[in-house]
Amino acid sequence: MMNLEQLGWNAHFDKHCKPFRQQALVAARVVRAGGGFYSLLNADGEQTATLTGQLRHASSADTLPVVGDWVAIDTPEDDGIRIHAVLPRQTALKRAAVGNRKGQAEKPGVPQVLAANVNTAIIVSGLDNDYNPRRIERFLTLVYESGAAPIIILNKADLCPETKARRTEVEALAFGIPVLVTCALRGEGLDDLAPHLQAGRTLVLLGSSGAGKSTLLNRIAGADYQRTAEVSAAVGKGTHTTTHRELFPLPGGALVIDTPGLRELHLWGESEEGLASTFPEIVTLARQCRFSDCQHEKEPGCAIRQALLEEALDPPRLESYLKQREELVYAAHRQGLATQVAQKQKSKVTQRKRWRPGDEDDQ
Ligand SMILES: Nc1nc2c(ncn2[C@@H]2O[C@H](COP(=O)(O)OP(=O)(O)OP(=O)(O)O)[C@@H](O)[C@H]2O)c(=O)[nH]1
Ligand SMILES: [Mg+2]
Ligand SMILES: [Zn+2]
Question: What is the CATH T-level fold of the domain 5-88, as seen in this structure?
């Protein structure tokens, strides 16, 4: 049986759980969510719970429980265990929501929370056709914005004749965060992960389908926790083998969340801090522009355009920065609209078909 500390519990959650303890509620961690049901772990083992009507109706999609969340639950009664509240998150990985399967319009301004309370996010990139530095930069912004610490894993070293060059290229955009080159299939290159796998630490595996996330999980765990499958030879892409996010307590004590490869990653952010962390050299340059609101287009005294001329800055890197910034500005705009819509709707009592927890997976 695991105690709460082994599941990642700490003083932050303890403090925020106090009012719930007074209502005789106890804490548990969400390990899986889907179809309105939540699998939870605490000292009593694994249990399944649903939301109280109050929580379901009061919450928007981004405040409902997700994998990694700590929740306050009641004791089982005839209708099972119910989740009364989500404890404030220490970190949250969010992306702009994509339209759901039924093709319904996306809800403006509500991000999708991929996972919560993650200490370390492992960005996995295959060194085969999957390799794409621009995509790594997108994941970096997502992770920085979440508050978790990123690590980059370049996997499938066995399939790449130029691992050294690619490592150097990725190190240049990583600005000191760890870059590991691994072969998950043979279990090579994973030693440097050990310091991040301490007991009670939560990690998440992010990356495209087929990059080898589940293979890495199985390697680190030392057992086959997750199914893995060949990358399609025809299109060189993964087949979306993992279909839902799930948290696995490993024998060594760390907690690892495996995720399905994301088809689309549209950025979401409440600030530009994540962006600034991913592109520190561009932020530094921009501070040297003559005008503080320089758009780096035609203004005189633009340090960024000067750096391009001097080949001190790679054009694709700047493009990547500008594209991410545009997405973040758009997300902020939608968030503003959503706030207006929410205020208008408050007066109406519309209970039409609701978003259901679990509808959010890519599969
Ligand atoms: N050659 C080689 N193949 C690998 C390596 N790591 C994983 N693979 C293979 O790549 C394929 C995809 O691996 P998965 O672990 O299922 O990929 P995933 O990232 O979990 O994919 P999704 O669950 O679809 O998101 C499998 O056939 C693995 O055996 C590696 O280091 N080298
Ligand atoms: Mg997988
Ligand atoms: Zn400029």
Answer: OB fold (Dihydrolipoamide Acetyltransferase, E2P) (2.40.50)
